[in-house]
Amino acid sequence: MALLRTRARFAFTPCTCSSTSPLLRRQLSTSPRSFAPFLFTSLPSRAVIPIQGKDATKLLQGLVSNDVARLEKGETRALYAAMLKADGRMLHDIFLFPSSAASPPAPSSADNPTPPTPSYLLDHPSSSTDSIRKYLKRHILRSKVKLPKPVEGEEGKVMVAWRNREEEITEQQVDEAREWLEAKVGAGRDGRVEGMGWRWCATPGEPSAEEPSSYLFEQTTPHHYHLHRLSHAVPEGPEDFPPLPLEANLDFMGGVDYKKGCYVGQELTARTHHKGVVRKRGVGVRLFREGEDIPTTLLPEGALVPYPSLFPLPPPGSSLTLLHSTSSRPRPSGKLGSSLPLLSHSGLSTITLGFASVRLEHLEAQGEGPEADELKGVFVVKPPKNEDGEVGHGEGESEEMGGRWLARAFRSEWLEGKLEEEERGSLGS
């Protein structure tokens, strides 16, 4: 009987944006669609720190989880990595670029006996700029490394470009876009997940600062980029990363090199990898209210418009606990990261997309029967305790807004592939 009551809770119509004002719906329905094959934007949530000096490569090699030598060799123009605490817990997710990515440092030769001074650009969360500068200075000591502070108004910007999923694109257009991005502004492929696009640091006064003006590109908003990365279940920034970086798929996204030398925080990361014990992984989630239909896909078909101020959401760090559990007192399965409300282009329906790190076994059916199968991967979202030690059911809780916030998690195709590689023992070995 308890299972039947649980099932009945969800026999309601899908969520519609009935509370959206007619004016907003009219604006959305008449707003122009982007027909350009590729989109680009700058990211205010990210900032750039220049790192220069004879010992810059050596310094960074001892502080980040990936192999900085790949930049020197020209194997990549955008190196994804993490900075960790000494105990292996997460500090910051970063990208490293050569300071002039279009012409990486050349090795010494008979014609060029003196190699250029190593110089890098550190793409990092803008909220952490001061703490990262202090962290770097603490490790520089007597190393020949400088951290130039740009003149106000001339700071570098992090730029991203990606394929417009709503448009048909020819191979010729892909080749033209790649040539422009990589040759003109020195963009590097974002190798975290296939389809993420390109990334680069735009430095004032250099070719990298030139914005794409080709018919291939159209400028959009940072929120559209966050929709793009959340649809690929890609974490970014402190909101998305739990203390243990592998639980947000840092290794699966190419952010860890297990064959490089020592770096700060290596021991826990390497030990976890070789033991093969990572119980939680990062997944895409759909947030919805209790009483609405359970989502069956992460992202529905059709045009979607990011609308971050549409309604309050559970904050990052909210716990996720199984809705349907065989335990009388289920423990939290994971935590919610960032999330983003989206409207259909007509403005008549809404969904909320997010990222979370959850226990993999809790994505499977808990128990037997159709009830357990229907509710697999569905979690109750509870924000962190307040000053009085109380746990809420979700920001924006009211009779008008609906019941508790719930979340359904979805394992992406790329995550499934990486888990299979890990099981075969061919990942990172």
TrEMBL record:
Residues 102-112 have a biased composition (Low complexity). Signal peptide: none annotated. Coiled coil: none annotated. Residues 102-128, 382-403 are annotated as: Disordered. It is found in: Mitochondrion. Residues 384-396 have a biased composition (Basic and acidic residues). Keywords: Mitochondrion, Transit peptide. One of its GO terms (cellular component) is mitochondrial matrix. One of its GO terms (biological process) is iron-sulfur cluster assembly. Its main location: mitochondrion. Belongs to the GcvT family. CAF17/IBA57 subfamily. NCBIfam families: ygfZ_signature. PANTHER family: TRANSFERASE CAF17, MITOCHONDRIAL-RELATED. This is Uncharacterized protein.
